[in-house]
TrEMBL record:
Full protein name: unspecific monooxygenase
Record-level GO cellular component terms: endoplasmic reticulum membrane
UniProt keyword Methyltransferase, yes or no: no
Enzyme Commission number: 1.14.14.1
PANTHER family: CYP9F3-RELATED, CYTOCHROME P450
Topological relation to the membrane, as annotated: Peripheral membrane protein
Organism: Pararge aegeria aegeria
Reaction equations catalysed: an organic molecule + reduced [NADPH--hemoprotein reductase] + O2 = an alcohol + oxidized [NADPH--hemoprotein reductase] + H2O + H(+)
PROSITE patterns membership: CYTOCHROME_P450
Binding positions (heme): 454
Keywords: Endoplasmic reticulum, Heme, Iron, Membrane, Metal-binding, Microsome, Monooxygenase, Oxidoreductase
Cofactor(s) the record lists: heme
Superkingdom of origin: Eukaryota
Subcellular location per the Swiss-Prot or TrEMBL entry: Endoplasmic reticulum membrane; Microsome membrane
Amino acid sequence: MFTLVLVVLLVIAIYFYGTRNFDYWKKRGVKYEEPLFFFGGNIKSYIDNVSFSERFAALHRAYPNEKFVGLFEGNRPSILIRDPELIKHVLMTDFRHFHRRGISLNKLVTDPLMKNLFTVDGDIWKLMRQKLTSAFSTSKLKAMFPLIVETTEKLTQIANEYAESNDEVDVRELMARYTTDFVGACGFGIDSQALNETDSDFRRLGKRIFSPTIRDHFVNLMKSMFPETFRNVRFFAPEIEEKTFSIVRQIMAQRNYKPCGRNDFIDLMLELKQKKKIVGESIEKRNVDGTPELVEFDLDDQLLAAQVFIFFAAGFETSSSASSFLLHMLAFHPEAQERCRKEVDEVLNNYDGKLCYDAVKDMKYLEMAFKEGLRLLPSPGYLLRLTCDKYHIPGTDVTIDEGTSVVISVEALCSDERYFEDPETFNPERFHPDNIRNIEKCVYMPFGDGPRACIGERMGAMQTMAGVAAILKNFNVTPSRNSLRRPRIDPKSIIVQSIIGGLPLALTQRQKI
Ligand code: HEM
């Protein structure tokens, strides 16, 4: 009997604990997604077998008349913002309340690799962002171009082997090997051999980062539900952490821990390392007179390795997704493909047949097609922020608390017929300079927006367009026996959307290479 009473009391206690915040949105008169006991909405993507991006897009679409919708991550209230005007407040106007991305929920303990620019928050983010911005300047991009050209030449050779074999090629994998080599060459001054070897070290690391295992999903779920309890469990699996640190150590040792004049990302890290400390104005702390406090951090090896990690991870996967999906769309839209190819031929003629920074900049129709590809498959398909303090939502009587996650579904906004006529159709003309101004602010954001927008946007656009131009210059791209007009998104995708079965296409040579 005593045991039974104890069990009943325990069940009641767990019930109250697991639902303690579930009236949060109701009390504020905000429509919300009905939470599941204990898990909130966290496990909905697993139950519905959809990616995180698809889950948020479905939630966005389910409330067409709301400016925002409440949801729960475990017991923690979160909010999905639908209205472009409010999105502008979150990403730009009221950025001081939303500078955290909130992937690391525990402010004090941050895994070494999580100190990268994408996942770190607060002052480390602010100071590192200032330091790293110079790595993406126009002069740096121009200086990188010979390496881009070298990598596109290798890409052409490998693509040619596939074309000669008359077999279909998974362009998702091919372009991932191209962007891996590109990032290896431009960022780290090494030949990562991803194009030459199907199973190179770098490609294996890249695949592992973006193929979350059951362990990764479990840790992600637990850390978001119980940030305190799971604060010491590493977000990234040990093999990813070890491999990254070992690669960074190796490359730095090859350069004797001093910048070698290549002016690449590793050189920038080594320059920072020589300074030992990073000092700047705090985004979090204020002096009594209201001015920002000065803060400083040690530039230790782990902090630098974390930036190398994100340069690699964010640098290759998003661009390979964008370039392969663009090739896929062009295979299914031969008239757009022909127009891109004609432009590539004409522009290259003006530059002695050679790909260069200015030539890619002159490929205006290809750029429109690139933007349209990203509209149809934005990768990643959602943006995250976290409130840094209490925030009153403008134009309403709703106030949300510090620590509320904010989600914006780029995927749903990009496919909403309110903002894009006939949204399912691939139509690069939407991004013609005469039409682009008709696109409402804060509905097309494949690179995010505001001070936390993608730092590598121009580099991503350059490597994507250069890779696609190199393919179109030499090959016709058509659907093959296993191509699906609408590829299926892998439900295991957490941030960048992977595709089940890749993107198989057929390549045929335009002329002998
Ligand atoms: C087509 C290619 C790319 C796409 C679609 C893309 C997309 C994005 C998006 C959506 C974000 C989040 C922005 C936000 O929350 O407002 C982001 C952030 C970021 N991206 Fe990219 N990205 C691309 C290429 C790159 C490249 C080439 C690099 C570096 C080599 C890079 C590095 C980063 C970093 C470090 C952040 C975090 C910035 C911060 O929080 O300050 N990305 N990217």
